[in-house]
Amino acid sequence: TIRCQSTSTDGPKTRNLLDNASNLLTNFLSGGSLGSMPVAEGAVSDLFGRPLFLALYDWFLEHGSVYKLAFGPKAFVVVSDPVVARHILRENAFSYDKGVLADILEPIMGKGLIPADLDTWKPRRRVIAPGFHALYLESMVKVFTSCSGRTISKFEELLEREGLQGGEAIELNLEAEFSSLALDIIGLGVFNYDFGSVTKESPIIKAVYGTLFEAEHRSTFYIPYWKFPLARWLVPRQRKFQKDLKDINDCLDGLIRNAKETRQETDVEKLQQRDYSNLKDASLLRFLVDMRGADVDDCRLRDDLMTMLIAGHETTAAVLTWAVFLLAQNPSKMKKAQSEIDTVLGQGRPTFDSLKKLDRNVELGQTVIIKYAPRFRFIRLIVVESLRLFPQPPLLIRRSLKSDSLPGGHKGKKDGYAIPAGTDIFVSVYNLHRSPYFWDKPHEFEPERFLAQRNSEGIEGWAGFDPSRSPGALYPNEIISDFAFLPFGGGPRKCVGDQFALMESTVALAMLLQKFDVELKGPPESVEQVTGATIHTKNGLWCRVKKRSDVKRSDVH
Ligand code: HEM
């Protein structure tokens, strides 16, 4: 048995010779500087049967916001503190790369942005980030509404086919439905390819799911057997993976070829001001191919497309899944959301304007107060609160490229910890988002919590919540919370698709709730969590979906 051993002063002292030897070896190999850090204790068997991030939460409460987790000779530093997270992700970001994550993802994403080493990442990020400009996002809102419309029509047809009246419900696995929806959106948004997965199955869709499944398997399997030279030919699942990968790559190569054949090279500024309303292909691929000076070999371009396909698919599907899971248990919040949707949309569809425009609320009291509140304020808060409770991914992975000195952090050692080069780190977003030190009732679904401005209560090094730090932001982010809330990471490697994903989730959720009431089919406990790159359910999110009976007809904005 390999046990994770404790050197902290509290907690049980389960030791054996093997543990001590492995820790000594780890410390020796890593320069020994982690020696004074609390070490999480528990058998590796603690990790079986439940996701790793949940075990890391228990150890966080026991050992504090920076601790070491040792698996035999392998050790990870687990960070659950905003000050330390800010240091690793932003202040000293270029002293870290993606470490274990890059090892796992490289066979799938190659040198795409997520796993890329710093030298590869820097020029590619400069090329890709401008692609997510305002007019692109505006044209994407049309993609979000038309794809969400297909999902809604599918549900309506199913209800009709079953001959069900207003009050009766169909049973659907909404996780699977959201996965199809997000796949269709990302296909169109990134390379103008319509998977059409809401309504059909195809070999390419199966290949995409096969690849995602393998990425997940690799991120949770401790021995990287796929690296053995013959594994790709001898192990059936690896053979299938190679075939899936080839099918997707062939498809992407075809799309790249097409885009290059119709290339219209121009400068970034001109691309960002194109008339998107008349553009047949508004995709990111079009932008990247047409951008002057962004020449890159097809292989690198393919890596980037594959990265965005994977990064933008499961994550958004998971946000929608958990948002519905939470709303279904809070019918009063679902009603509140529906009443907001009725007011903003009536029977209409969301538009870029309706997402961005501000509503003018006039409050009459002794004086007249005019407040400007973004539309869909409550839906937005539901989206971010879902991301707080179920961050995707729950852990960010880093490896130090050189030795570094971590700040002490909240309740930490005053002078922090020195870490040697090569230290593997998990920044636990899940722990940060549910930290009892920064959130009231951290496990409860309270979208309104983001409206309550909070100060830092004297927590050293942490500036507290302050919306004025990010004026104009439509959604709470890591800046207003000074890294206590980081659903899209932070610093230079922050998600490039954050606004895309937030608007997509807002539109999809608004359109679903505009038409339907949703409740869980079974008890919430039966919706167990499993994790790979994202948190998803064990057996699907089975819900009863029925037409809303209380739709209020109001102005269409
Ligand atoms: C990076 C979350 C949607 C593309 C990241 C990171 C997070 C994240 C936490 C940082 C990873 C790290 O620091 O290790 C999410 C969530 C999404 C979402 C929660 C949906 C709700 C998207 C979409 C796209 C996208 C829609 C593209 C269309 C990327 C890329 C990176 C990234 C390319 C790497 C950025 C870099 O290293 O420069 N995402 N993401 N993501 N995401 Fe997203």
TrEMBL record:
Domain of life of the source: Eukaryota
A Pfam short name: p450
Swiss-Prot/TrEMBL cofactor(s): heme
Positions contributing to heme binding: 495
Single annotated GO MF: oxidoreductase activity, acting on paired donors, with incorporation or reduction of molecular oxygen
Signal peptide feature range: none
GO annotation, cellular component aspect: chloroplast
Keywords from the named record: Heme, Iron, Metal-binding, Monooxygenase, Oxidoreductase
PANTHER family according to UniProt: CYTOCHROME P450 97B3, CHLOROPLASTIC (PTHR24291:SF183), CYTOCHROME P450 FAMILY 4 (PTHR24291)
Family: Belongs to the cytochrome P450 family.
UniProt name for this protein: Cytochrome P450
Native organism: Rhododendron simsii (Sims's rhododendron)
Lineage, opening ranks: Eukaryota, Viridiplantae, Streptophyta, Embryophyta, Tracheophyta
